Amino acid sequence: MIQEQGSFAVGGAISYTPGTYSNNAPTSAGQSIHGDHLYAFYQVPQAPKSLPIVMLHGAYQSARSWETTADGREGFQNIFLRRHFPVYLVDQPRRGRAGNSTVGTTIEPTPYDQLFFDQFRLGIWPNYFDNVQFDRTPETLDQFFRSVVPNTGPYDAGVISDAMSALFAKIGPAILFTHSQGGGPGWLTAIKSPNVKAIVAFEPGSGFIFPAGELPAAMPSAAGTLSPEAVSLADFEKLTRVPVIIYYGDNFPAEPTTERGQDNWRVRLAMARLWVDAINKHGGDARLVHLPQIGIRGNTHFLMSDLNNVQIADHVSQFLAEKKLD
Amino acid sequence: MIQEQGSFAVGGAISYTPGTYSNNAPTSAGQSIHGDHLYAFYQVPQAPKSLPIVMLHGAYQSARSWETTADGREGFQNIFLRRHFPVYLVDQPRRGRAGNSTVGTTIEPTPYDQLFFDQFRLGIWPNYFDNVQFDRTPETLDQFFRSVVPNTGPYDAGVISDAMSALFAKIGPAILFTHSQGGGPGWLTAIKSPNVKAIVAFEPGSGFIFPAGELPAAMPSAAGTLSPEAVSLADFEKLTRVPVIIYYGDNFPAEPTTERGQDNWRVRLAMARLWVDAINKHGGDARLVHLPQIGIRGNTHFLMSDLNNVQIADHVSQFLAEKKLD
User: What spatial distance separates the first Cα and last Cα of chain A, rounded to whole Å?
Assistant: First the structure.
């Protein structure tokens, strides 16, 4: 039961080429290009709750992350619509339907299927983890791989969070869900916009920001070194004004390992714990849920589309209820 | 009132790189990439009609073409949902959320705003046509320009129509709406799939196909020469099995002109007339509606989002009713 739905672009830049435009012999001269905006598709259900949910995808993904799951079940878009939240799905600047960029790029058809299988913790290619919350039919894996989309311009957390901030300015107070790489721009959005009323971060993977002078040590892993990033204390403290919950799934190694796909997440979980501690030390309200510690097993990197995604949504709903955000 | 909604990828290819995949030191070796599929978002309204409508966008566009208009009104997605058609919105292969391509490309941030203003017949930059069915506020023009998205791989009507054919195989009999450049892949889709039960083409701009040996002369214009393309007689005759209606808007020049943006469409309209004649000569059921000739004035290249888009939708509904497709 949808009361209203639609889409729009918001934020972004305009790049102008000097010169005089010639209508009948056009070159770049005197022309402009609009780019670096985000694209949002929104739906308002009947009897809507007052705070919408804005969902921001991760790397190599689009808003499709939140739609139908790879095995054809309902994703968080429909689940939270059924729970009466207005839902805004974002394609971030330079991705998907927000593809126009003011900065160019080259797209190579990089074969990453097997790397993604490992890094998104479906298993260790070609074997699934025994307890994995992912349907093992070939059709599901095919759909999963086909959710990948390339960047159409350089990845820039500043550009993304500027457009996200413009979105929150347009729609007013709302809850922000982020996935993976979206975590970093998510924190920056909450710094830039007072309309971000809570953050639910699913497996944030980059952009862990700390106050300058309080940075923890970088963390080496089999997938490279994860370094914290510095922001001003004043900006960091803006993150202490809203409740934050962070979720991580299963099959994280307890100790350093040579398994690249898993070790990548060991350090992210460790860094996220330090981040939560720093937020709370500065008077904030952050919480980290490592799902296996509350008995929820087998989750991949895509918690919101895993086989138990209704259970994950239930946990999120409970958090939103506790914080009186629903 | 939506009964069901969701999204999926369909069609496409898998490209394999020879070698052995190394989980912990991954390179391209032994990996694959899934690409060249299309992405579809579908909604089924309450009390649905039996034939869904599939909407395929044009050049530089995505499924957003059919969603909210640049000035914030409902587009053909919502209008035809309200008329109880299930609606499938497509991002074609190598565009938008179907961005993964098996062939690489370079994206330059080409400044085309002013060229688009002319070529999409909003007016002659910087002046709107006097009668234009386009809201003249700067915010609307900003949204219009931000609907542009780049190709993420080479444009290939064969790749697009293959994926579209796979879509029609998956969903069954349906009506196909195309816009602009989508016209060409649209004809090819109807040749490839017997599930295309009708075609409604809004300002088809390329891919005018004729039986080999029956090609009309190429048509020079101020925007370049438009050449017809040859297909086998057997393939062409497949297009005679389904009703086809083609719409063109206003501000076409009657005679050749140096105005590039308008002259581009003079030859397309002329070629479309020859195409309709050829279809009908071969026993088909094609009709061309040049809107000014039935008293509908001021339409741009984007008929489905113009200020009078409900009037355009009414005409389409009447066509579908006449052909007993609703």
Answer: 19
Q: Which element (helix H / strand E) includes B160?
A: helix B157-171
In a mutagenesis test of the A interface, which of B147, B148, B149, B264 is the best target, namely the one with the most A β-carbons within 10 Å? B149
Q: How far is B222 from chain A (nearest CA, A)?
A: 8
User: How does residue A138 score in pLDDT terms, banded at 50, 70 and 90?
Assistant: very high
* Enclosing H/E stretch for B209: strand B209-211
Q: Is the pLDDT of residue B1 over 90?
A: no
pLDDT, one tens digit per residue, over B291-311 is 999 999 999 999 999 999 999
**Shortest CA gap B192–chain A (Å):** 23
Q: What is the DSSP letter of B63?
A: G
A1 pLDDT exceeds 90?
no
Whole-angstrom distance, CA of residue B245 vs CA of residue B320: 10
What is the CATH code for B2-322? 3.40.50.1820
Closest CA to B67 of B144, B121, B154, B161: B144
Q: Which of residues 286-315 of A touch B (CB under 8 A)?
A: none
| B313 within 8 A of B79, measured Cβ to Cβ | yes
**B225 token code pair:** 């020469």
Contact between residue B2 and residue B43 where contact means Cβ atoms under 8 Å apart: yes
Checking ipTM against 0.90, whether it exceeds it is yes
Is the pLDDT score of A144 beyond 90? Answer: yes
Cβ-based neighbour number of residue B233 at 10 Å: 13
Q: Does A106 touch chain B (CB under 8 A)?
A: yes
Q: Contact B126/B113 with Cβ under 8 angstroms?
A: no
Q: Is the pLDDT of residue A179 over 90?
A: yes
pLDDT of res. A165: 98
Domain ranges of chain B: 2-322
Residues of A within 8 A of B74 (CB-CB) are: 6
In whole angstroms, give the CA distance from residue A77 to residue A254.
33
Distance from CA of B291 to the nearest CA of A (A): 25
B169 confidence band (pLDDT: 50, 70, 90): very high
Annotate chain A with three-state secondary structure: CEEEEEEEEECCEEEECCCCCCCCCCCCCCCEEEECCEEEEEEEECCCCCCCEEEECCCCCCHHHHCCCCCCCCCHHHHHHHCCCCEEEEECCCECCECCCCCCEEECCCCCHHHHHHHCCCEECCEECCCCCCCCCHHHHHHHHCCCCCECCCCCHHHHHHHHHHHHHHHCCEEEEEEHHHHHHHHHHHHHCCCEEEEEEECCCCCCEEECCCCCCCEEECCEEECCEEECHHHHHHHHHCEEEEEECCCCCCCCCCCHHHHHHHHHHHHHHHHHHHHHHCCCEEEEEEHHHHCCCCCCCCHHHCCCHHHHHHHHHHHHHHCCCC
Residue among A24, A111, A146 whose CB faces B260 most closely? A24
pLDDT at position B111 over 90: yes
Per the structure block, which two tokens stand in for A175?
Answer: 């809850």
Q: How many CB atoms lie within 10 A of CB A13?
A: 16
d(CA B238, CA B231): 11
CB B150 within 8 A of CB B107: yes
